[in-house]
UniProtKB/TrEMBL annotation:
It comes from the Archaea. Transmembrane segments: none annotated. GO terms for molecular function: transferase activity. This is Glycosyl transferase family 2. Pfam families: Glycos_transf_2. Residues 4-138 form the Glycosyltransferase 2-like domain. The keyword Transferase applies. InterPro entries: Glyco_trans_2-like, Nucleotide-diphossugar_trans. Keywords: Transferase.
Length: 293
């Protein structure tokens, strides 16, 4: 098999159905299969997906996996990665839609650039604007500081202050970055064999940044490839109902990533400042969410 596409479902039947169909409705010049991994949905969405794509399941095009409990996005993807037998693996969010020949272009780039370990495409929001999270720098102290203090928003075209989402770079160019987003990550299986699976300590945020960090450290390039596109219906999934949990996991991921990759490189005062910053902003976001509700 050339490509295995992994889509994680959690109570998002319509969105997941649309994502799968956006792949199936295109003609692809390579062999592929799709793994739909359900994270213990209780709304019947998994059964509905099995019924909808029964024919594709019977001929082996789609493989269904049902997790008995929800242990997070990273764990669900790892389950399918372990079963996949292909040269390339694509992580594709269940709230996305593949546009045109996105997969063909992406596969062609990977095959012609053997030093690329991960490729992320241009990710557009439904209104046509770029999902800024699709190309990023690693969240080292200075990058995160500029982001948290709002300097990155005040000076988006500054190479110094705009590093968080690389807003000073042209979104229509292709170039090497630190990391791309988990909504669309195309990897070589040989890369995964070398660096290992997604870190399951991350529940639903940060696992993509951590993976890119390890892959880049192993000598592979991380590429933002603007000539391939998907639409990301960000915030449209059922997980939006879990705002408090999402906020907690977002800042928990920051804590895990810092401890794993940066703690030993900074003095204690910087570490304490980082912890305080993460905790303070998390509490502010939780309070804001409570007031809004």
């Amino acid at each position: 098999m050339d490509l295995s596409i992994i889509i994680v479902n959690f109570e998002t039947f319509e969105m997941t159905k649309q994502t799968v169909e956006s792949v199936l409705n295109q003609s692809h010049p390579f062999d592929y299969d799709i793994y739909v991994v359900d994270n213990a949905s209780s709304d019947g969405s998994f059964e509905s997906l099995q019924k909808t794509f029964f024919k594709e399941s019977e001929n082996g095009k789609i493989k269904f996996i049902q997790n008995p409990e929800n242990k997070g996005f990273a764990q669900a993807n790892n389950v399918a990665i372990k079963r996949a037998n292909s040269d390339y693996v694509l992580l594709l969010n269940s709230d996305t839609q593949v546009v045109g020949d996105c997969l063909e272009r992406s596969m062609h780039y990977m095959k012609n650039h053997p030093d690329t370990g991960v490729l992320g495409c241009k990710v557009l929001l439904p209104d046509g604007n770029l999902d800024k999270a699709c190309r990023r720098s690693f969240p080292e102290f200075s990058v995160s500081f500029y982001r948290m203090t709002g300097l990155s928003k005040l000076f988006p075209k500054s190479e110094r202050f705009g590093r968080y989402n690389l807003t000073y770079l042209d979104e229509d160019d292709t170039y090497e970055v630190d990391c791309v987003m988990g909504a669309f990550m195309l990897l070589r299986s040989s890369t995964i064999e070398k660096v290992g699976l997604l870190d399951e300590k991350f529940f639903m945020y940060g696992e993509d940044i951590d993976w890119c960090y390890r892959i880049k450290a192993a000598g592979w390039k991380i590429i933002y490839y603007s000539e391939a596109q998907i639409i990301h219906y960000k915030g449209s999934s059922n997980s939006k109902k879990q705002n408090k949990r999402m906020i907690h996991e977002f800042y928990r991921a920051m804590y895990i990533f810092y401890n794993k990759h940066y703690r030993e490189d900074y003095p204690m005062i910087t570490t304490l400042a980082t912890y305080m910053g993460i905790w303070s902003i998390c509490q502010f976001k939780l309070f804001k969410n409570y007031i809004t509700r």
